[in-house]
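Quick illustration, no need to memorize.
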Amino acid sequence: MTVATKTRIDVVRLTRHIGAEIRGVDLSKMLDPDTVAEIRQAWLDHAVLLFRGQKLSQDDHVRVTGYFGALAPLTRPPKFRPPGFDRLHPNIMMISNIRENGETIGALPDGEMHFHHDQIHSEVPHAGTLLYSVEIPTYGGDTLFADGYAAYDTLDPTLKSKLEGRQALNFYNYGSTLRGDTRGVGATNQAVHPVFRTHEETGRRAIYVDRLMTQSIEGMPQAESDALLDAVFDHAEKPEFVYRHVWRVGDLIVWDNRCSMHARDDFPADQRRLMLRTTVQGTVRPY
């Protein structure tokens, strides 16, 4: 495959605080280093990037992931492949409600998901996620992205002072979309991280706890911890910090897990939804 010549791209804001659409680029073609650098800087500036109308092979998807960092290994390989997939790249996860012989072919198949950071329950959370839409329902299944920077900057000073320097316990039960469901939770899917995170590349501070996976603040009575966390969650999820994405087939979205969190709306269980996901390897603390 030949390297594309340098082309002008347009970066169009999606909201005041978070998100930008990148126009003028075909990700199925190799991009030159200057274009890649421009896109990656836009990612750091806006936390969420949208590329509309893309036609990506699995190899394209993996190559584009490399523009944002090292490809993270897939921790839960799918048991099945959907029709039309004669192979599935070992680092691509299917997010799907499609069922074969009564079993789902992908991960996170159904229902609403509260705001969360990918892999915050892991010792080394993912730095970024790329999600590509293959099949979508006629309505529902929107993804919401919340800006952790703006939420941190505008957090009540008293609340911020109580939580500055604190650590929080995060865990997740892969069989559930409910907060606090401890069934099957073990040492491999729980981790402690700062309540506020300093982004390794931008140096900016962001809220780094979320409603789905953050369970408690270390060294604090549970009742006090719950009250403080609920106040942070309510603030961080305010509409002014959120971009709601209504999916179209061929959309690719790249988000920065270090400074944003995301949620999913419910969608009709009798309509197919198939997304392909890769992730960018994170870094070890301190941050």
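The chain has a mean pLDDT of 88.
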